[in-house]
Design a protein that fits this description.
Beta Polymerase, domain 2; 5 strands
């Protein structure tokens, strides 16, 4: 009978396979989107595998032991993908694109843009099941995909750094400022979207006046 350490290592290997699968799938979907719409909506993206330490800490916060079965049941983001877009509409276009993928199964959707967290955090989260093809058959592994604008990503990065500076409780003054700035981020995203719409209007007018 396998010991728990072996089970965990085998599971992490499957997650490594899942990381490669989701990375390839997202790349293909984005290339297809670019061909279809004539532009790439993504500024940058990142794929990562959660460290053992981070997994242990997350399970500890949930009051669970560091076991393979608990990793499967309680940690959805061992494989994580972050996709950063230019405009708000791009976020929802990418959500739609991923939802239509024949290789991924949508397990959960959380729209923290329409419904931000109390801290002011905004992003669109998808938990998807990624197929991993093994000799004994296909297994599906959880993967979390976060999709957000550049402005949202800047705020989230700042929030993350502050959380490390204040290991225990973040002072209320800092929390209030963070929330205040998140409202500014919302306004900025709307302004940038308005600007993009104006640019698109002029591009369409130019195409009418100067047809190919």
């Amino acid at each position: 009978m396998q010991d728990e350490k072996t089970k965990i290592n085998q599971l992490l290997t499957k997650y490594q396979f899942a990381l490669k699968m989701i990375e390839a799938e997202v790349e293909v979907l984005l290339q297809e989107f670019t061909l279809k719409h004539g532009y790439n909506p993504v500024e940058h993206s990142k794929v990562r595998l959660k460290s053992k330490k981070s997994i242990m800490e997350k399970l500890e916060r949930k009051g669970k032991e560091y076991t393979a079965i608990n990793m499967l049941q309680y940690v959805d983001d061992i494989v994580g993908v972050r996709i950063v877009c230019s405009f708000l509409t791009d976020v929802y276009d990418i959500v739609s694109m991923i939802s239509k993928s024949s290789n991924l199964i949508i397990k959960e959707k959380k729209d923290y843009i329409a419904n931000p967290k109390k801290t002011g955090y905004m992003s669109y989260h998808l938990v998807v099941l990624v197929p991993v093809y093994l000799q004994d058959g296909v297994e599906y592994m959880n993967c979390e995909i976060q999709i957000r604008t550049m402005a949202m990503d800047f705020w989230a990065s700042l929030d993350h750094k502050l959380s490390y500076k204040f290991k225990e409780i973040i002072p209320s003054e800092v929390e209030e400022k963070l929330y205040e700035y998140s409202l500014m981020i919302q306004q900025l995203d709307q302004k940038m979207l308005e600007l993009n719409d104006i640019v698109d209007k002029y591009k369409k007018e130019n195409q009418k006046e100067n047809p190919v």
